[in-house]
Design goal:
The chain has 437 residues and is of the alpha+beta class. Helices cover 42% and strands 19% of the residues. The protein has two domains: 246 residues, Class II aldolase/adducin N-terminal domain (L-fuculose-1-phosphate Aldolase); 182 residues, L-fuculose-1-phosphate Aldolase (3-Layer(aba) Sandwich). A hairpin with a 2-residue loop joins strand 1 and strand 2.
């Protein structure tokens, strides 16, 4: 990855698999921008996205830096890694990630719009567009407001599993303060991004606050240098992980209800079920399937409370982009079920799931019928494992990785407290805001 500045333009290159993507942004007074500042910004975002310690169920990180232009005032550069509006090649779990958005905003314009209440109504993308510095229309990271309001030069927004376990708990504020003390601000869940940003800005202005936890959304960390900001993110992720691991020692999700199938028996069953699943989930075209039978997943699909917890909803709204709001659950009783029973059950429940996802989209503002692929993206099979489906291998991998991260957060919550998921209306509002013009 590299960056260099030419007259009137900023160029930043990043690798996406075997391809090199070149971002060229026309910026007024761009000669004032340090030559390697954008390269370091994008590198920081990709490192956080590729780090299993800081990646989360939303499979998304954003980083930002505030730079002063000699004649143009202070600007906010935000780099986003992760799939928003279908705009990223991020392949979590394979150690690579593409840059989904790279935007530059006039900081004063954004802050004035917030103070004038111009950003209170979704969609508000038009207001942010007026604050752009570059002349080329690009998706603006939806977290841009969070970066703008924090009074620090560098800001990270991430979703580490340990932090998301705290953020998804009914008593999240109590757990957050037990873990981090007064150094952490707790921001209650807000559907509107502008109101959420205002709450964060007020909290971050307090001298004793060093990080912020956003209920059902994730972690915000900052620093005056890149090293300080990155260190704050890594430290918070480790501290939350250790706190959750120490407190969640009991049986998760109500403890085991059945034993996982043996490897040989599972292989025979999957040889029968996977072709049926591929057909049942292919309503909008052929699907690629990815299987996960790791110990973490097997413990989850064998637990007593999993059928209810899984249908409650995602760990965070961002997860919906990869896994839908809820997975398809298939219960299996090897002692009484034969292959024909399971085939009929899969077909029936896949059809019911498709109908329900379309109803939720119509009722709560999700994608319209022409855009919506209502087929399940994650299938949980009791005693067997997780099957993720996608139109491409990358889509299936993203769905699998996102739900694996969700399991890492949901499981401990059931021991520490009670899991609280974003509701269907809240997830619909999140998707609606992302589709704003």
């Amino acid at each position: 990855m590299s960056s260099n500045v030419e007259a009137g333009k900023t160029r930043c290159t990043a690798r996406r698999g075997s391809r090199t993507v070149i971002y060229v942004l026309s910026v007024d007074q761009s000669a004032d921008v340090p030559a390697d500042a954008l390269g370091r910004l994008v590198r920081r975002a990709r490192l956080l996205a590729a780090d299993a310690e800081t990646a989360g169920a939303g499979l998304r990180t954003t980083t930002s830096t505030k730079l002063s232009l000699r004649l143009g005032g202070e600007v906010l550069w935000v780099a986003g890694v992760g799939a928003v509006n279908g705009g990223s090649d991020a392949e979590h779990g394979s150690g690579s990630g593409g840059v989904g958005e790279l935007a530059c905003l006039r900081l004063a314009s954004v802050l004035v719009a917030m103070s004038d209440d111009e950003l209170d109504d979704d969609p508000h993308a038009a207001v942010l567009a007026r604050g752009r510095v570059d002349s080329i229309a690009r998706p603006c990271p939806p977290e841009a407001l969070l970066h703008a309001v924090v009074p620090a030069t560098h800001v990270d927004v991430t979703q580490p599993d340990g932090v998301m376990a705290l953020c998804a708990a009914a008593g999240g504020e109590r757990l957050a303060h037990a873990c981090f003390g007064d150094a952490a601000a707790w921001i209650p869940y807000e559907i509107g991004r502008a109101e959420l940003a205002r709450e964060l800005g007020l909290a971050a202005a307090e001298s004793h606050v060093r990080i912020a936890l956003l209920a059902r959304r994730g972690l915000v960390t900052w620093g005056e240098t890149e090293r300080e900001c990155h260190a704050a993110t890594a430290l918070a992720a480790r501290r939350a992980r250790d706190f959750v691991a120490a407190g969640a020692l009991g049986p998760r999700c109500g403890g085991p209800a059945l034993a996982p199938l043996g490897e040989r028996e599972r292989a025979r069953l999957l040889a029968c079920l996977l072709p049926v699943l591929r057909t049942a989930l292919g309503g909008r075209g052929p699907k690629v399937l990815e299987l996960d039978t790791s110990p973490t997943v097997l413990d989850f699909v064998c637990a007593r409370e999993t059928p209810v917890i899984a249908q409650t909803g995602p760990v965070c709204p961002q997860q919906v982009l990869h896994t839908q709001r809820a997975p398809l659950w298939i219960d299996v009783d090897p002692r009484h079920d034969d292959a024909s029973d399971l085939v009929e059950r899969i077909v029936r429940r896949a059809r019911r799931h498709r109908t329900h996802m379309r109803w939720e989209a119509a009722a709560f503002g999700g994608p319209d019928g022409r855009q919506l692929d209502a087929d399940a993206r994650v299938v949980l099979i009791a005693g067997v494992g997780l099957v993720a489906a996608g139109a491409t291998r990358a889509d299936a991998r993203r769905a699998r990785c996102a739900y694996r991260h969700a399991i890492e957060a949901m499981g401990p919550v059931t021991v520490l407290d009670r899991f609280v998921a974003p509701s269907a209306p809240e997830c619909g509002a999140f998707e609606r805001a992302l589709r704003a013009p």
